[in-house]
Each structure stands twice: as C-alpha cells, then as structure tokens.
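Fig. S4 source data, part A: sequence.
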Amino acid sequence: MGLLSGKTALIFGVANDHSLAWGIAQAFHREGARLGFSYAGEVLEKRVRPLAESVGSTFIEPCDVTKDDDIAAVMDQAQRAFPGGVDVLIHAIAFANRDDLSGPYYVTSRAGFHLAMDVSVYSFTALANAALPLMRPGGAMLTLTYLGAVRAVTRYNVMGVAKAALEASVRYLALDLGQHEKRIRVNAISAGPVRTLASAGIAGFKALHTQFKNMAPLRKNITIEEVGNAALYLCSDWAAGVTGEIHYVDAGYNIVGVPSPEESA
C-alpha cells in the first residue's frame, strides 16, 4: 500500500518532463494515486498527453485558467470521471510576460501586472473554489512558490510580487477551508531554482542556478524528484495536521544571511 493508495489527484501545470508538477505526478503515481491532468493549449497537449498516459491517466483535459467557464467545464468533467471525489488539487501554474522579467521592476506595465496576478495567483483561488464540491473530507491543496516572494531577487520582478500574493492566498485559503466541514488543508512548496520551461523566461537564470549550489548549505541544486517527495508528504495523511505552511525545498538556501561561497583549495 502506497501513501496515496485509493486517492485521486488533479494536477494543473505540467508542461514537460522537467516540470516540478511532473516530479509531483511521478511521486504520486509511485505511491498509488489515480491522476488527472489539465493542460493549457494544443502545444502543451503534445507534451502532456504522453506523460499522463505513461502513468496510466485517462483524464487529460484542456483548461485556460483565466476563463471561469473553462475551469467550471474541467471540474464538471472531473466529477464525471471521478465519481468518488478528488483528494488532492495541485496548482503549478505561473506566467508573466518575458518583457516584465527583465530590466527593473518599476517598468512593469499595467497589463503585464494584471496578467501575472491573474494567471499566477487568482487561478489558485478560482481552482480551489471550483474544486471544493469535488473534494473529499480531509483533502489537500498545494501550490508552488519561490523565495522571490519574500526576498527581492534580481529580474524576478512582477513574478516575485505575484508569488507574495500567492503565499498570502495560501494562508487565507487554509483559514477558510480548514474551517469548512470538509477540513481541507492548503499548503505551498517554495522550491529552489530548477531548470524548467518557466524558469527559461527569467533573464540570468542560468547564472542563478549555477551560483545557488555554491551558496546553499547542502551545496547542491534541487531536483523535481525532491519537490515531488515533499509534495507527497504534504498531500498525504502523514501531514494531516499541517496547513497554511510554506515548505522550503531549497537545500537550506532560505536560511542563509551572508552566503559562504566555496573556499578555493
């Protein structure tokens, strides 16, 4: 028996086999969960469908999270596909215009700010609200964030502001849904930098990724498997008393005040 045997998880945000969401999906599959996937657009479908099928999933549906009708439609389809209900909702969605992730933060456009907040923040609240009728008692919701929510990270810009709002949303959702009769838990993982499709849009990311392992206490970069295992814990009954938390999976980088670079031999 796996940690998620008999449980069903809906996963939003897999882009390819390097995605943090895919690391989560693999860990869930390994521990016995039945999985459903949603993707955004035909281009991503070509990548997501074979991955989903490789873990035995037959629920692979499109959803534009900026459209309430799309969210309602995918939840209706999930209700028919999983009549016993859903235990876990994974939100691994974020987006900002490339132009807003380079140069200074203060030149962020109004439209770019709205877009980043809508896709990266409000979508979690919208999905949580729409998924609640499907959720089984004691279920869990999980999203992904980054240290840029609480520290100023060069060129992370509007995404850092969006992640700060997302972390606040985690706390408010945890408060409300914990008091709901279903006692749903809501948490977030703050992962260290990982080479994903999303990170490719951040100027200077390769240098950041290289420097990270020389400054983190564990002297290593983070893998999607490590993020997946942390998500497994937070979404399993082992974390039945945990909600409203921002759980760092970053080799300890977040605790460092003054980095201690590698000493030369």
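Fig. S4 source data, part B ends here. The first strand starts at residue 8 and ends at 12.
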